[in-house]
Amino acid sequence: xxxxxxxxxxxxxxxxxxxxxxxxxxxxxxxxxxxxxxxxxxxxxxxxxxxxxxxxxxxxxxxxxxxxxxxxxxxxxxxxxxxxxxxxxxxxxxxxxxxxxxxxxxxxxxxxxxxxxxxxxxxxxxxxxxxxxxxxxxxxxxxxxxxxxxxxxxxxxxxxxxxxxxxxxxxxxxxxxxxxxxxxxxxxxxxxxxxxxxxxxxxxxxxxxxxxxxxxxxxxxxxxxxxxxxxxxxxxxxxxxxxxxxxxxxxxxxxxxxxxxxxxxxxxxxxxxxxxxxxxxxxxxxxxxxxxxxxxxxxxxxxxxxxxxxxxxxxxxxxxxxxxxxxxxxxxxxxxxxxxxxxxxxxxxxxxxxxxxxxxxxxxxxxxxxxxxxxxxxxxxx
Length: 382
Description:
With 382 residues, the protein is mainly α. The chain has helices spanning 10-16, 30-39, 49-72, 74-78, 97-104, 115-119, 124-134, 158-164, 194-214, 230-236, 249-267, 277-296, 309-314, 316-327, 336-346, 358-367, 369-375, and strands spanning 87-90, 110-111, 218-222, 241-246, 304-308.
């Protein structure tokens, strides 16, 4: 097993994220939540029965709030404001996608979904102002897996909105890691049937329509699973842009395993044995980048720009200026001062450090050799 200088202290992370703090599943309507439980044969750990109760109560509320929201905003949702095609921030988990999201949100020409909007995708138009104030006390200051700030109004992954809307997603495994198949579900949308893919696309469009009603600026969507979906997204949104960040796989692997360990401990309705943890990280990476290499050939020139996390950290302003130029994201001088201030604050961020397991180094070198070669990464000293 990969060792780390700051090992994934699941119980410590869990206690730092109290039982009454929000879980991703609190945003599901009752039918979606019960379908997820039935799909996993009601195999819920007794220690999670309290969490089961709070999520079920929240799901019942969601089922009441969603039709009220649709009724209240019916006219706006029938003709939502037109927005520019989305900018998609993509890359493997723990590669720097959150950092890029935070940086781009300094540009007031863009908007993004917030944590609350992704937790309550069916009714945030109706409830956001009231409930984010009323529930501010339950949101921890930091995420359970790292030092990144958390909050209802912080930028968030739209994948959480999609999973709460009930469409296929690899994130469903977080709730039931012991009974969900190890193969990542719906990471590559081409593994879905045509009908399933149409349902997925309709859900994303519905969420973006609601987001446009709230804020008609150009949306910036950040979701690691979208790395495997570029062709579908480019077809859905002609003119979309993709900003792809990569990071040293020998850091990404232990960091991603730590992520799943932490999220399974905090979010799951089962006690994760961890038997498939390493294999799952490998499978997701393999699926993600096989789809990415396939899809990049289908994009038009100027739709995709790639950068290395290490270069972004070394020169945040220069890296972002190049991204703006390559993707035609607008006048960079307008945001240069804000980006320079962000670059200064980034120097204070404490990143996790990892020791390296020779067995994992060998496996990464063997399985991800093409990635290492393309992006110029080399194995560390064991």
